[in-house]
Inverse folding.
């Protein structure tokens, strides 16, 4: 088992003829992902590594089931592409594109919520379930993915795409495989936060523990800590917090509205304290994560 | 990117928000002329992109044009938190009976804009939010449904404002919301929004922050307001080193050498990617190292880009060595980064084996990369050495040097 994606997930790529998307197609196919089609307006009839290209998402969804899409189109076309996918009934939208203004991201998220779709990203490397499927750039070429990611009981959620691979690699080297790894994206507003993905991991019998990579900014860690406490989660969580140096160089405040909405700045020290109070172990270094996870798994009797 | 007060007010004014009469002066003489045109007591405010102006002496009052010129001179010569004022805003003084607060910003958790209104505005608004929450109304807005002014009405009425005040405030606060939504702002704030003794409302001070990623989309507005494309408009103006870092990144579209920031240490850092850089910078400091810079390379930067970044860092006075480190990479080619940093060392007349304290980038094409590093005698490590340990080796070499 896994969350979000598995062997049977059918995937399309929007913007498939772009340079990066062509790589994603190659890597995904090599890893065994069912990439069933791609969309680039005006390029219908072409193929990318044997994957047929269409003008519209509906050209594919009217022919067959599409579970997920990888959106790679440039920032100024991303909202349109995401609306098109959601409108055509695609329920999992992975947005790789970065530098999308947050007002547009918020629109995509609001529409997704109304239509029962889920967004991962933007500005992320996607989702990877070892030995099942790879939806996005996580891990790079299939041969590299197999070196770093192995199947097992740990769910990974990370605000950094690169660090998702670093952590998976560290866990794999210590004999801890992964159920599903999610690069959730690094922007101020993202489709799915830690707390929003927790219920999925919670419901996945294969997942026994969670590893999290975290950074300064936002309230996502506070939200996670509240979720874990409120739902008495069965899953032990081990987190790593990067960017602690930024506590010593707070950006000068501008206006007052931000503080009223979010309260005082949530420094990395604050985040660590909140997470620890909710029973989340916080590693000082990445290489401590496997040991902490094993300890927590043993204590949980898993 | 932040707007100066006079720009924020100009933007609000275009959408119908009531402003004080006034103008921006760049010299005492200009301030005198504006004050005499206004004909009465004036307030003079330093135009800087930071708070705390009042405390720093950047806000002064004058009853006549001659005093206005004198006060303007004092303000123009006053640096506030490292910022030289862009000018002095000279405005008429209005007799204010009460101060309100109105702002729209993003609520990251709700993933929606939130409108905040208070009848207890002014500099202590944050304290008010904690001590008198019933005087601070928050209303979330849809990003899909068209904006409708009843949302504003609910917020204002929510703190107990009714009668003529309510009906006069609705269009002003609605204008603020429209500006926020139309221009991809991350903050639109009027504080204080003053009510005069005769019942008029006036924008006394305003803040605007526009999303950096939406800059191009609103190029026309920025041009009309006279905001140059080269202005970063951040809390701290970029240093010469940082400007050159941005130039290195912009000169070549292949890959990223982003967020180049200057620090005062002696160990140069060629690190990536985003999360990896944060992790490595922490690790260097934990080992007692002193970074000369921060940066985020990634997205498979070209040899040229890595080379130029290396040269920039090595040209910084006091930089003895560089550490080249990343997390396990997915799309960046190890051999290309290796070539780039070695070329950078050589072009600066530095010996790579002595200059590169450690190279730790595992991932695609690592065997080819390691081969090049061996040829130049550069110490490298693969994924069996953690990021923390690699940082430790770099710091140890600095100590031994």
């Amino acid at each position: 088992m896994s969350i979000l994606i598995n062997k049977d997930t059918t995937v399309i790529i929007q913007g498939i003829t772009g340079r990066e998307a062509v790589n994603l197609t190659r890597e995904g196919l090599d890893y065994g992902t069912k990439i069933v089609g791609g969309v680039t307006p005006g390029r219908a009839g072409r193929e990318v590594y044997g994957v047929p290209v269409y003008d519209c998402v509906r050209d594919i969804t009217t022919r067959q089931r599409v579970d997920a899409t990888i959106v790679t189109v440039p920032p100024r076309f991303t909202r349109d592409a995401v609306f098109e996918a959601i409108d055509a009934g695609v329920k999992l939208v992975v947005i790789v594109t970065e530098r999308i203004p947050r007002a547009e991201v918020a629109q995509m998220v609001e529409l997704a919520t109304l239509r029962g779709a889920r967004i991962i990203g933007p500005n992320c490397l996607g989702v990877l379930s070892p030995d099942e499927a790879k939806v996005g750039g996580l891990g790079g070429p299939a041969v590299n993915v197999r070196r770093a990611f192995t199947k097992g009981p740990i769910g990974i959620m990370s605000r950094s795409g690169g660090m998702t691979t670093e952590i998976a690699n560290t866990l794999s080297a210590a004999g801890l495989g992964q159920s599903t790894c999610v690069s959730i994206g690094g922007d101020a507003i993202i489709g799915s936060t830690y707390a929003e993905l927790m219920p999925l991991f919670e419901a996945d019998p294969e997942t026994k523990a969670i590893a999290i990579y975290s950074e300064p900014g936002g309230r996502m860690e506070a939200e996670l800590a509240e979720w874990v406490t409120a739902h008495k989660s069965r899953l032990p969580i081990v987190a790593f917090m990067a960017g602690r140096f930024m506590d010593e160089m707070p950006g000068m405040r501008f206006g007052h509205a931000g503080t009223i909405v979010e309260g005082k700045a949530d420094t990395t020290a604050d985040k660590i304290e909140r997470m620890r109070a909710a029973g989340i172990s916080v590693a000082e270094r990445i290489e401590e994560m496997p040991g902490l996870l094993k300890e927590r798994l043993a204590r949980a009797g898993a | 990117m932040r707007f100066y007060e006079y720009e924020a007010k100009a933007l609000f004014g275009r959408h119908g928000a009531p402003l004080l009469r006034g103008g921006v002066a760049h010299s005492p003489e200009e301030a005198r002329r504006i004050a005499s045109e206004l004909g009465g007591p004036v307030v003079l405010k330093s135009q800087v992109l930071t708070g705390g102006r009042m405390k720093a002496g950047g806000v002064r009052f004058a009853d006549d044009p001659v005093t206005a010129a004198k006060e303007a001179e004092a303000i123009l010569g006053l640096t506030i938190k490292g910022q030289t004022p862009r000018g002095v805003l000279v405005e008429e003084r209005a007799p204010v009976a009460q101060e309100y607060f109105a702002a729209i910003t993003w609520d990251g958790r709700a993933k929606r804009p939130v409108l905040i209104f208070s009848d207890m505005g002014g500099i202590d608004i944050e304290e008010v939010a904690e001590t008198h929450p019933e005087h601070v109304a928050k209303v979330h807005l849809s990003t899909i449904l068209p904006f409708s002014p009843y949302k504003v009405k609910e917020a204002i009425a929510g703190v107990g404002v009714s009668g003529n005040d309510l009906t006069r405030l609705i269009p002003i606060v609605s204008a603020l919301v429209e500006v926020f939504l139309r221009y991809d702002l991350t903050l639109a704030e009027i504080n204080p929004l003053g009510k005069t003794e005769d019942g008029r409302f006036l924008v006394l001070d305003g803040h605007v922050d526009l999303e950096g990623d939406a800059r191009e989309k609103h190029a026309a507005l920025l041009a009309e307001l006279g905001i140059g494309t080269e202005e970063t408009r951040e809390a701290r103006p970029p240093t010469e080193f940082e400007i050159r870092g941005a130039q290195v990144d912009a000169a070549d579209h292949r890959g990223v050498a982003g967020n180049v920031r200057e620090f005062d240490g002696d160990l140069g850092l060629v690190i990536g990617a985003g999360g990896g850089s944060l992790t490595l910078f922490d690790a260097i400091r934990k080992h007692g190292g002193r970074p000369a810079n921060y940066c985020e390379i990634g997205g498979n930067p070209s040899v040229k880009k890595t080379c130029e970044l290396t040269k920039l860092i090595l040209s910084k006075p006091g930089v003895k060595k560089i550490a080249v480190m990343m997390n396990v990479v997915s799309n960046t080619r190890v051999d290309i980064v290796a070539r780039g940093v070695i070329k950078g060392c050589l072009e600066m007349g530095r010996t790579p084996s002595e200059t590169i304290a450690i190279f730790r980038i595992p991932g695609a094409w690592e065997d080819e990369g390691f081969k090049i590093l061996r040829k130049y005698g550069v110490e490298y490590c693969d994924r069996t050495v953690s990021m923390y340990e690699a940082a430790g080796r770099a710091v140890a070499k600095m100590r031994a040097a």
User: Anything to note?
Assistant: Chain A touches chain B through 65 residues (CB under 8 Å). Chain A has eleven helices and 14 strands. Chain A has one domain: 10-299. The two ends of chain A are 16 Å apart (CA to CA).
